[in-house]
Structure formats: structure tokens, C-alpha cells
């Protein structure tokens, strides 16, 4: 079942048409949240990120779009799909309703909630081979829109085809200044000599909740330094570790970039701390 504006519908229901602005213009946002046994992990952070993203795109936020209202809608969608006792990922998609021209007739929005089964309740760390390469054909803009999750994923889609055709698990994405901003599948973290770097939002990195949470966790660890700073592609082969963070898996260590092979000691250490935070968040 999918939830369309509060109504639970069969997945085959024709509730979206060719006039949908998300389809026509990419006038749409999404936020993905993890649910564990009917509890939404880091829900407050996800909610405020969604609201901030809607404001940036000048979408009119409905009066009923409170944190409590959307939480109820998520839980009813989970229940209708049999996920109250199972781990799931919920995708919240919000699109503008205002007609089929570039200039919307009005800023009202609709929403769709969909669920995807997860293999594990908490975040995991996959130690299988995960080789990456730079994707240089197309670049990410370093502006405010780039930090949002919209349906405009052309760079990621083309990069994923490049990765598949060349036998890579993922690709590192660059901005127009040729600085690292992330990968196809998530936020990137670089570890070198007890120091951790992540690309700044001002460089075009996504301001995803898990990136923020892991940054806060590392900042609280004695003996570690963490900073948002520009990452040059030349730094990648000098790093001790590289890993990707996303809400579906958790932490994915990069095992190889070109001739450099990486370890995952820091990533494994952070996984337990991240899951401890997620457990605490799910109990609130």
C-alpha cells in the first residue's frame, strides 16, 4: 500500500498522472527515514530537514504538516504494509500541485509515502569489495539547491551506468571546482591520521541526517578531529580510510580507489556508536 495525501491505496492505483509536476519538471522533494519496529529513527531531524527543503523551494507548507501528523501517516503506512514489527525504509515524497507550466499556478503540495523492506533493523557495515572511481563526465553545482534531495538525479543515474559498465561499486562525484562532494550512494568521509574530513554543504554536499549524526558522534570522540573542509581528489589516495554513509545500509567502507587499498578500523568503531544513537532515538 502507498499513502497518497492520507489515503492508503494499492500500489497499482493510478493516483499520479502525466500532468504531475514531479514528472514534468522535477518539482519534488523526498526524505527517506528508517523505521525499527514501528519507531522512526532520528525523526525530528528528518522532519526539520524536509520542512527546510520545502521552504527553500518556496513550497507552501500545509497547516496540518506537523511533526505529529506526518508521524501518524508514516506509522499507518508501515502498519498497512506489515512493517510494524519489521525494519523498513519510508520514502516521503512531496511535490507541488500547481499546473503544467514552469510558473506554478499555486504552491499547494501533495505527498506520497512508500515503504521498502530492510534486511536488518539497525545500520550495518558491509566488508565486501567496494571499488570506486571518479566520475568526471558531469559535475555537481556548489549551490544551495545541491544540498537538497530532489528527483533530479541525472548525474547520479549516468554515473551509476558508468560504474556498472566499468565494474565499479560506486563513483565519487565532483563539483564544478573539481572538489569531492560525495558518491552516487551517499555522503563520503575521509580518515587520515585520526582526522576525519567531510565535504562542506557549501561545496554541494547533501545535508542528510545520517551525515550530520555521524559528524556529531565523531566530534565527541576523544583523540579524533573532524571538520567540514574541501577535499581534493589528490587526497583520496593518501587517506587511511574512505567510507560512504547512507540511510539504507549505514556505513559502507571503500576498499579500493585506483591502486590504493583501504582499511575500515574507524568505520567499524563508528558503527557501534551510530547504532547506539539510533537505539536511543527509536526509544524516544
Overall description:
By secondary structure, this protein is an alpha+beta fold. The protein has 2 domains: 2-121, D-amino Acid Aminotransferase, Chain A, domain 1, CATH 3.30.470.10; 125-283, D-amino Acid Aminotransferase, subunit A, domain 2 (D-amino Acid Aminotransferase, Chain A, domain 2), CATH 3.20.10.10. Helix content is 28%, strand content 30%. The protein has helices at residues 21-25, 43-56, 67-80, 154-166, 209-219, 233-236, 265-283; strands at 2-4, 7-9, 28-36, 39-40, 88-96, 109-117, 124-125, 131-140, 170-175, 180-183, 187-192, 195-198, 225-228, 241-246, 250-253, 256-257, 260-261. Helix 5 (209-219) packs across helix 7. The mean pLDDT is 95.
Mean pLDDT: 95
Overall number of structural domains: 2
Helix content: 25-40%
**What characterizes the major β-sheet?**
6 strands, antiparallel
Taken from the alpha-carbon principal axes, the silhouette is globular
Largest sheet: spatial strand order: 2-1-6-5-3-4
What is the CA-based Rg, rounded?
19 Å
Total E-strand runs: 17
Overall structural class, as computed from helix and strand content, comes to alpha+beta
**CATH top level assignment of the largest domain:** Alpha Beta
Number of helices, counting only DSSP H or I runs of 4 residues or more: 7
Instruction: Please name the CATH architecture of the largest domain.
Output: Alpha-Beta Barrel
Are there runs of 5+ residues with pLDDT below 50, and where? none
